[in-house]
Specification:
Chain lengths: ~100, ~190
């Protein structure tokens, strides 16, 4: 038997207490625009999680996607990689990172 | 698998419509719990929105084999705590201020006015309770949760919930007895 089932009958103070709490929230509901705002904020939150890498970056490390002329990346892509791993790999020459 | 669990799985895949449906299912208990604790409609709406944003943020950690309500109540209580502790102590809720302006129902001691007066005194007494006791009182008497459910939500033993409930009730009884005596004196002098 759960504790809820073993509840004792309420005394007059508890009855008034319950009435008072129910009266405080009776017929109260959040305004209709809360739902819309929530979905908007959640969508913004979701967008922030998505990694928006430049189109060529995923292909940088995958041999299968490497183009036949084997030109891996342009200079600004290297800068992007440096910014991504910068603090940890700053002392690494970039050509070794990409080897 | 429960309906909530299915919606949580959809939300884990990034389906925001599932978040909307979870909001529709649970918004009233969450909102009313926050409102009962904070006594502030705007704060309750902010807390409601924040609870579901956190659900969205931490949805990968939600265990779909367990009911969702206790998780939502826990976040609601935590956010309400933050609100109550940050709120300025001197701020008087607008309803109380209006009550003070129009005066209590002491000049019309009809049963209805007396009852309204009693409910108002009770609400004030609830607001005066320490946060830990107020939360237990709200979850037990408004949300009809069991002692065990409350203990799981708050992360405290059942005995602690029982004692908070007991001391909360005793504190209310003392405050209301004091208020009733004051009212009787007022009636005698009017």
């Amino acid at each position: 038997m759960s504790l809820r089932d073993r509840r004792e009958p309420l005394d007059p103070l508890e009855i008034r207490l319950r009435e008072s709490l129910k009266a405080r929230v009776a017929h109260k509901a959040p305004s209709a625009d809360v739902r819309g705002k929530l979905i908007q904020r959640a969508a913004r939150q979701q967008r922030r999680w998505v990694w928006r890498l430049p189109w060529s970056i995923p292909g940088l490390f995958a041999d299968s996607n490497r183009r036949p002329d084997s030109q891996p990346a342009t200079f600004h892509h290297l800068q992007y990689v440096e910014a991504l791993f910068g603090p940890r790999l700053a002392w690494f020459p970039l050509n070794q990172v990409l080897r | 698998m429960s309906g909530d669990a299915r919606l949580i799985l959809r939300l884990q895949r990034g389906d925001l419509e599932a978040l909307g449906q979870l909001y529709d299912h649970h918004r009233l208990p969450v909102f009313r719990t926050a409102l009962a604790i904070t006594h502030d409609q705007d704060a309750a709406e902010d807390i409601l929105q924040e609870v579901f944003l956190r659900l969205h943020h931490y949805v990968h950690r939600v265990d779909t084999s367990l009911p969702l309500s206790p998780w939502l109540y826990r976040i609601t209580v935590n956010l309400s705590y933050t609100y109550v502790t940050r709120r300025n102590k001197w701020r008087v809720p607008i309803e109380d201020f209006v009550d003070q302006l129009i005066g209590p129902a002491k000049y019309c001691p009809e049963p209805e006015a007396e009852r309204r007066d009693e409910l108002r005194s009770m609400q004030k007494a609830i607001d005066m309770l320490p946060f830990s006791q107020r939360v237990v009182i709200v979850l037990y008497y408004l949300n009809d949760l069991s002692l065990r459910e409350i203990s799981e939500i708050l992360g405290v033993p059942v005995g602690t919930v029982k004692s908070r409930l007991h001391y909360g009730r005793e504190s209310l009884r003392r405050q209301l007895d004091g208020a009733a005596q004051t009212r009787e004196v007022q009636y005698e002098f009017t």
